[in-house]
Amino acid sequence: MLGKLFAFGLVTFAICTGNSTAVGQNSWAQQLVQPQKLDFGVIAAGSESLRVLTIENTTNSVVHIVGATPGCQCVMPGEPSQHLLQPGEKSTIEVRMNTRSYRHQRDTFLNVTFDAPRFEIVRIPVSAYIRTDVVFTPGKIDFGSTEVGTGGEVTCRIAYAGRADWKILDVKYTNKDLNASLKEVERNPGLGTADFELTMTLAPGARPGRFREIITIVTDDAASPNVPLMVEGIVKSDITLANDNVRIRDLKPGEVTTVKVVVQGTKPFVVEDVDCPKMQDCFKVKLDSTEKKLQIVELEFTAPNTPGKFVEELVVKIKGREETYRCTVSGQIR
Questions:
Q1: 3: which of 20, 74, 322, 323 lies 20 to 30 Å off by Cα?
Q2: Chain centroid, CA 241 distance in Å
Q3: What is the mean pLDDT of the chain?
Q4: What is this structure's pTM?
Q5: How far apart are CA 156 and CA 134, in angstroms?
Q6: Across 162-251, where does the E strand assignment appear?
Q7: Taking 70 as the threshold, does the pLDDT of residue 23 lie above it?
Q8: How confident is the model at residue 24 (pLDDT cuts 50, 70, 90)?
């Protein structure tokens, strides 16, 4: 009987030991995840809060990310942007705090699970303080998807409950395409409440692409003066490249072939140039000076004398515009 108990104890010890080592600390997988801790700081109730984990495969093996699971429902991880990582590739996981259902100090963790090249769990500590005296409605300033040249305007209401003389001193941000306007709309000193309207405008000249910024609401709170608020949106370009990757067939040194770059626009335009900075001597471009909504640009490519695979960048310039449009060109010289 004693022997059986001893054997059972060994099994239990092995199971417990196995569980303790399942969460990797300073393991091969731990080194791939950055940052090693997610601290959301002080955030407002109802606000949209976001942090990003980056996983970079610095090993010589293929890495597979199963996903991320939270230790508390106050943490809401998204899916990895890429599950399978070749050596050198990166993936990101967007992590949000549930500020609508949870309040005050939250200290928990996020487990990132890998099952290749071998099973490992990386535990990332997560912390935040969700203050209840400041509430944003809506929880973020979202410009949505806007056409280039149109700009936009979004208003957020900031409600405070606490001190009768509470003030917002400033709104700080770095994006030059944004502008903030703040006004106090209501105050009740007897209840210690105040309401403000924050209006953010997006300049019509904002460059195409997705933007996301955490702006800072600076208050006169001595203990915790800064309150973050997310601003995001997408400025859709009126010109797009139909082919993201121009593929050139396998060639021998000196061989010549022709490829095409297709450029589309919502209004007629002219392609001024298509250039490959690192392989300038290999390309000759045929341009059309006629304004059209669809431009098909032919490129004559002469294979260089250096054999091997290549992946380079093509830069498309539009007449009358400062911004450029880019795609890759790839092939192999045998």
A1: 20
A2: 22
A3: 90
A4: 0.69
A5: 13
A6: 168-172, 178-188, 193-202, 209-219, 226-236, 239-241, 245-247
A7: no
A8: low
Number of H helices, E strands in the chain: 1, 25
Kind plus residue range of the DSSP H or E element containing 19: helix 2-22
Q: Which residues pair with 263 in a beta bridge?
A: 241, 295
The answer on pLDDT for 149 being more than 50 is: yes
Handedness of CA 286, 148, 213, 92 (dihedral sign): negative
d(CA 313, CA 274): 10
| Structural domains present in the chain | 27-132 (2.60.40.10), 140-236 (2.60.40.10), 239-333 (2.60.40.10)
Checking if the pLDDT of 46 tops 50, the result is yes
Question: What does the alpha-carbon distance between residue 228 and residue 218 come to, in Å, rounded to a whole number?
Answer: 9
Single-letter amino acid code for the residue at 76: M
Q: Is residue 314 within 8 Å of residue 246, measured between CB atoms?
A: yes
Neighbours of 141 (CB within 10 A): 25
**Dist. CA 48–CA 97, nearest whole Å:** 8
Mean pLDDT score, 313-324: 91
Distant-in-sequence, close-in-space partners of 207: CB < 8 Å, separation ≥ 6:
148, 177, 235, 323
Q: What φ, ψ does residue 4 adopt, rounded to 5°?
A: -65, -40
φ, ψ of residue 299 in degrees (nearest 5): -120, 125
Query: How many angstroms separate the CA atoms of 25 and 22, rounded?
Result: 9
* Beta-carbon-side half-sphere exposure of residue 305 (alpha carbons within 13 Å): 0
| Gap between the Cα atoms of 148 and 246, Å rounded | 26
